[in-house]
Amino acid sequence: MDGSLLMKRAFLENLRAKPKDQPAARQPPAIQPSLVVRPLLAVRYSFVVRIWQEESSSGWRGWVENTRTGDSAFVQQVDELLAFIEDRTGKL
After folding, report:
1. C-alpha to C-alpha distance for 82 and 84, rounded to whole angstroms
2. Contact status, residue 84 vs residue 73, Cβ threshold 8 Å
């Protein structure tokens, strides 16, 4: 029989055996598979990206920084921003 099924059965039998005036023992919540902590196997990158619109032109400008290395660049197009990031991470 499955271990979790045995625990549930024992818990239910324990509830039935207790007098009504005693509070029932609390069973810890079941751990959902999505909440299980997994080792960090994937490489992770962090970047700070700032964008703004220049008053003197209709174009946008930006700045990007790799938080681990401190490398940074000013950009004028989204392609430049992606190129900066992909140079450090590989193709997205």
Report:
1. 5
2. yes
Residue 67 has which token pair? Answer: 């938080």
Angle (nearest 5°) at CA 48 between 45 and 90: 35
Look at the pTM and tell me if it is higher than 0.70: no
pLDDT at 55 over 60: yes
**62 within 8 A of 81, measured Cβ to Cβ:** yes
Cβ neighbours for 22, distance < 8 A, ≥ 6 positions apart:
none
Encoded tokens for 16: 């039935």
Query: Going by C-beta distance under 8 Å and a sequence separation of 6 or more, which residues neighbour residue 49?
Result: 62, 63, 64, 81
CA neighbor of 64 nearest in space, from 35, 52, 44: 52
Name the β-bridge partners of 46: none
Q: How far apart are CA 61 and CA 84, in angstroms?
A: 14
Longest distance between any two alpha carbons in the chain, whole Å: 79
CA distance 73 to 42: 26
